[in-house]
Amino acid sequence: DAGVTQSPTHLIKTRGQHVTLRCSPISGHKSVSWYQQVLGQGPQFIFQYYEKEERGRGNFPDRFSARQFPNYSSELNVNALLLGDSALYLCASSYPGRNTEAFFGQGTRLTVV
Amino acid sequence: AQSVSQHNHHVILSEAASLELGCNYSYGGTVNLFWYVQYPGQHLQLLLKYFSGDPLVKGIKGFEAEFIKSKFSFNLRKPSVQWSDTAEYFCAVNAPNFGNEKLTFGTGTRLTIIP
Question: I want to staple A50 with a disulfide (CB 3.0 to 4.6 A). Which of A4, A31, B48, B77 is the partner?
Fold first, then answer.
């Protein structure tokens, strides 16, 4: 079975540009979450979407936005990129429930120069 | 708000040594607890999870963890480590709410096993 897939795997952008990261969840999973992992730290929660609705938002500026499509895939958009946005962006999918586990993709390595 | 503390930032062990990685969380209600592993160049993988029931949880690759509610702890253990256990280990917690599975992670522990 295909796991969570993310694209692209690596990306280099210039300060001030915007970027779109994509995620396809595991088949049957309706919940998608996005995390930012800065080098040397644990993943930080950015967004969660379930059934195309935002269900949670972490402590990130409005430059970060996301959406979920009818096929449950998701996009993360970041505008006006800063050097500090350089990180590994992880997508996780899960079958929603009170007790459920998240499955992570390989991530997109974003470098802002 | 939830928070997770992992006290060991970098642990170096020889093969066959025993392992215990500490994890403490801060949250007043019911929690789900997880340990994830990130091998070099690979994605985060679930080692084990605790939802309810027996506080001693067994996971993959010989790992286990014990939930001690009174200490807000969920330490990871393995009796005899192998070189292939070299990786980054993350403890995580969330509240069991339907449709809101936000995970709060610790800062991670880098484990290096010397052959």
Answer: A31
Average pLDDT, chain A: 94
Query: For the domain B3-114, what is the CATH code?
Result: 2.60.40.10
pLDDT at B106 over 80: yes
Asked if residues B5 and B108 have their Cβ atoms less than 8 Å apart, the reply is: no
**Domains along chain A with CATH numbers:** 5-112 (2.60.40.10)
The string of DSSP letters for B40-81 reads TTS--EEEEEE-SS-SEEE-GGG-EEEEEGGGTEEEEEESS-
pLDDT in tens, A62-108: 999 999 999 999 999 999 999 999 999 999 999 877 778 899 999 99
Residues 74..103 of B with a Cβ closer than 8 Å to A: which? 90, 92, 96-103
Over residues A36-48, mean pLDDT: 94
Cα angle B43-B46-B35, degrees, rounded to a multiple of 5: 115
Cβ contacts (< 8 Å) between B43 and chain A: which residues? 3-4, 90, 104-107
A42 interfaces chain B, CB cutoff of 8 Å: yes
| Cβ-count burial B67-95 (b if 16+ within 10 Å, e if not) | beeeebbbbbebeebeeebbbbbbbbbbb
d(CA A1, CA A19): 29
CB A90 within 8 A of CB A34: yes
More reliable by pLDDT, B94 or A77 = A77
